[in-house]
Amino acid sequence: MRARKRRTLWAPGYFLMGCACLFVAGVMAVGARSVVHLIPVVVVGVPGALLTLRAPGLGVSYGPAGVRYSGLFGARSHAWKDIREVRVAVLPSTVYSSDVPELVLASGGTDQLLMLGGHSWGRTRNRRITRLVAELEAARVAAS
Predict the structure, then answer these.
(1) pLDDT at 17
(2) How many other C-beta atoms are found inside a 10 Å radius of the C-beta of residue 70?
């Protein structure tokens, strides 16, 4: 089995949103006349920098050794021997629900890959998430 990488479909949108925030922060910084005026620059600029720098790497990569998830605030890895199952977790809401891949760990805990989530309506599941979970589960079984 060769290593594969699956990125979130929202990464380009996050990147563009981060660029827009950085642009607005830059325009506000140019017009700042005192230190107090720089507070909105920091409030808009820091999230913009985070989105711009992290968005291209958002996703999951998996191969014979295990799975590595890169989210908005960091990355984490799990060896296949530490994962008991890969399943779809449903995060309910009032209007629609979110389907996210969830790793069931051998230690009894779970690890939800939230940045890879997708929305679903009613009882139907998000097909992209279902395919990703099937691929991850097949890779886990093949590595066992």
Answers:
(1) 95
(2) 21
How confident is the model at residue 119, as a pLDDT?
76
Whole-angstrom Cα Rg for the chain: 19
Q: Which DSSP string do the residues of 77-142 spell out, in sequence order? A: EEEGGGEEEEEEEEE--SS-EEEEEEEEETTS-EEE-GGG-EEE-TTPPPHHHHHHHHHHHHHHHH
In order, the DSSP letters of 55-72 are GGG-EEEE-SSEEEEE-S
What the block records as the tokens of 77 is: 């890895």
Give the three-state DSSP class for 75.
Answer: strand
- Tokens 């700042």 found at: 32
Tell me, what's the pLDDT at 1? Answer: 57
Mark the ranges of the chain whose per-residue pLDDT is less than 50: none
